[in-house]
Design a protein that fits this description.
Blueprint: E1 2-3, E2 9-10, H1 14-37, H2 42-49, H3 57-81, H4 83-103, H5 107-134, H6 141-169, H7 174-177, H8 179-193, H9 207-229, H10 234-257, H11 271-277, H12 280-302, H13 307-324, H14 328-354, H15 364-388, H16 398-430, H17 438-458, H18 468-471
Antiparallel strand pairs: 1-2
Helix pairs in contact: 1-5, 1-6, 1-8, 3-4, 3-5, 3-9, 3-16, 4-5, 4-8, 5-16, 6-13, 6-15, 9-10, 9-16, 12-13, 12-15, 12-16, 12-17, 13-15, 14-15, 14-17, 16-17
């Protein structure tokens, strides 16, 4: 049942839950596309601002760190001021910041606009997920979550290709201006189709919990990001990671003891949520998130082909992601979450590791087939993970569970790239190479595939009927 603002109760319908999920997905797509599309235009932006291209990475870092800092606050804001209201505000903030990013004429202006963008993005993802959860009955949760998952699958794949096209044939400014029409459409859709709902009492803001969790997550991500880009010394990276871990542990201790904590950690006592967000879930997402980083580099650096040819391969990978959407729900209904997460996880991990055997002499049809399979299995694993995580979450836990899930997903995204970059670096150093070569990518794919394989086997610890109320899998 869903509570509206006037305290009336309405039964969520399948059509309504899908509509709400689609509306939220439009905004998610805008935010996630922005995170990937801008990377390809950094050299041109550096030229416009009169700085070195390497300096432009600060724009990406500021966005990510601002987002990390405010994600912990999103659930409380949604409960205090209304999830729909905060989601509308998040879209508006993101759109306005995108306009100023495109209009920036100096690096300082761009950094400020990106920080504001990061604040809007921090509110958008967890609040959007809360709205979807409230408007979907358990039997409709797979379809609803599948809809809001596709932006996370598609944006990292098509973002760099689209960004290259826009930067080459239009200008880098339009990588940001493109958010304006998408955002305006998102605002209109949310305003017309997402209902205003009664919120639970948020209580007073847990300032200590916010500061500790925000600093912990921010420093962890800053340490991982600095390692990936080599922007600071190894000692500084260790200090950032150690400080992040200490503050995160302190935050957890505070949240368990506080009378009115910013985040309710009781969701971690639920096996389905714990599996999908911690341990196996984090490792599985690490493998999923590392592949969009490694695959384009494999073709451009390892194979030495241009961006256009690489884009063709990426489109095949993208097609695999899309093709799986039509059969995700029937497969989950037939086999259940545990079987899918184990078996499909093994297939996904094997397809990742198999990229290690690719070379410039590999027949093109074989490369297409492997990338299509990798896209299929990646899509299924991502949707299954995101759905089972909320299968047993109670209405009172939704806000905190959504925020916690967003925090850990953000961490796994950066962790995936960091681990892949670390393997590339170690391989290059061990063979005494002056630059990354094909053999380094081979070791990276093997390592990421192995991590994904171990995570997949760990899902055997789930109960056979885990999430059956959502998947409607037979309990026989």
């Amino acid at each position: 049942m869903v509570s509206t603002a006037d305290n009336t109760e309405i039964q969520p319908s399948s059509a309504r839950s899908r509509l709400v999920a689609f509306v939220i997905a439009v905004s998610f797509f805008m935010q996630m596309l922005d995170s990937t599309i801008v990377v390809t235009s950094l050299p041109q932006m550096a030229g416009s601002f009169g700085v070195e291209p390497v300096t432009m990475s600060i724009g990406l870092t500021v966005y990510m760190l601002t987002m990390a800092a405010f994600i912990p606050l999103s659930g409380w804001l949604g409960s205090r001021y209304g999830a729909r209201n905060i989601f509308l505000a998040a879209i508006a903030i993101f759109v306005v910041a995108s306009l100023f990013c495109g209009l920036s004429s100096t690096l300082a202006q761009f950094i400020a606009a990106r920080a504001v963008q990061g604040f809007g993005a921090a509110l958008m993802n967890p609040i959007g997920r809360i709205i979807v959860l409230r408007n979907a009955a358990k039997c409709d949760l797979v379809n609803a979550v599948a809809l809001i998952t596709w932006p996370a699958l598609i944006a990292p794949v098509i973002g760099p290709v689209l960004g290259s096209f826009i930067t080459t044939y239009v200008s880098w400014h339009w990588n940001f201006f493109i958010n304006i029409p998408i955002g305006l459409v998102g605002l209109a859709l949310v305003w017309h189709f997402v209902p205003q709902q009664k919120e639970q009492d948020a209580g007073r803001l847990d300032v200590i919990g916010f500061v500790l969790s925000a600093l912990g997550l921010t420093l962890l991500l800053a340490g991982l990001e600095s390692f990936v880009h080599g922007t600071v010394s190894t000692g500084a990276v260790i200090v950032l990671l150690a400080a992040g871990l200490i503050l995160s542990a302190w935050a957890v201790r505070h949240l368990y003891k506080a009378e009115n904590p910013l985040l309710d950690l009781s969701a971690f006592s639920i096996p389905t949520f714990a599996f999908s967000t911690l341990s196996a879930g984090t490792a599985s997402r690490l493998a999923i998130n590392a592949t969009p980083f490694l695959i384009p580099l494999l073709f451009q650096v390892g194979f030495g082909i241009d961006a256009i040819a690489t884009g063709t391969y990426i489109l095949v990978y993208f097609a695999g992601n899309l093709a799986m959407k039509t059969v995700t729900t029937p497969l989950l209904r037939r086999f259940g979450f545990r079987t899918i997460l184990v078996v499909n996880g093994v297939i996904a991990s094997t397809s990742i590791a198999a990229c290690a055997v690719l070379s410039p002499t590999t027949p093109q049809p074989a490369i297409y087939a492997l990338l299509f399979l990798a896209g299929l299995s990646r899509s299924m694993q991502f949707t299954a993970l995101n759905t089972i995580g909320f299968a047993d979450i109670s209405p009172m836990q939704r806000s905190s569970a959504s925020t916690l899930s967003s925090m850990l997903q953000q961490l796994s995204m950066v962790l995936g790239v960091a681990v892949a970059a670390a393997v590339l670096s170690v391989s290059q150093t061990s063979r005494g190479g002056t630059s990354v070569s094909l053999v380094d990518f081979q070791w990276a794919f093997i390592a990421i595939g192995a991590i994904g394989m171990l995570a997949s086997l760990r899902f055997r610890g789930l109960a056979k009927d885990a999430g059956s109320d959502v998947s409607r899998h037979s309990r026989r």
